[in-house]
């Protein structure tokens, strides 16, 4: 079904109400390999039974923690086969630290629909409000849908962010587990692209790939642990573009530059000659 640009652009998304518990937060952090340093006090803050600190990237899974069905790409004016879709970008801006337990509601809208010719890019923004009526976080994301272009829309911008031209202040290797995607999918993303070899091959990959949002969370956690003394409450925002795939069991190399109250990060795959996996990565923080 071709994209209906007039219907899609600016369309409001259904309001969603959801809640989460400390166990949900712990499960998410375990999906990011928290606890690898099992005696480190900073590491164990992510896994406290009563008040685990919450990495801001938890915002990407909080509304879907109890979902057990594969996601559908279904918006007003947009119906796309899941096998054609990959994540394009993700940004989380936290307006206050995310509590370990809470209730919230979401309101959102489609903000951009770009026609890339052979593909389409669809972006949306969602504002999450806590049960006290105050905003908790704002999420902005985009998807890249292969074969869905040609509907007559504008092509949109094409920009690349360059990394600083100096030696990074930090360089960290983050290994992933062979079962990393199978762990992470318990946070609500049951896309078979990450668990079903036949589905992955039909989508053009030799094997299931790691969730882009898992890579996103892993890099955020790595930077937080390395530069911010594992204090997730200092992170005020995190954004990235998904530049390539990561297969479970591979290693992420994070090169980190500190520039004022922001970290600039390059994330690559060690085993494949440092092929990019995330680009335009920025983490903002408080002193």
TrEMBL record:
Residues 18-147 form the Peroxisomal multifunctional enzyme type 2-like N-terminal domain. It comes from Nocardia cerradoensis. GO terms for biological process: fatty acid beta-oxidation. GO terms for molecular function: (3S)-3-hydroxyacyl-CoA dehydrogenase (NAD+) activity; 17-beta-hydroxysteroid dehydrogenase (NAD+) activity; enoyl-CoA hydratase activity. Transmembrane segments: none annotated. Residues 162-267 form the MaoC-like domain. PANTHER family: ENOYL-COA HYDRATASE CHSH3 (PTHR13078:SF59), PEROXISOMAL MULTIFUNCTIONAL ENZYME TYPE 2-RELATED (PTHR13078). This is 3-alpha,7-alpha, 12-alpha-trihydroxy-5-beta-cholest-24-enoyl-CoA hydratase. InterPro entries: HotDog_dom_sf, MaoC-like_dom, MFE-2_N. Belongs to the enoyl-CoA hydratase/isomerase family.
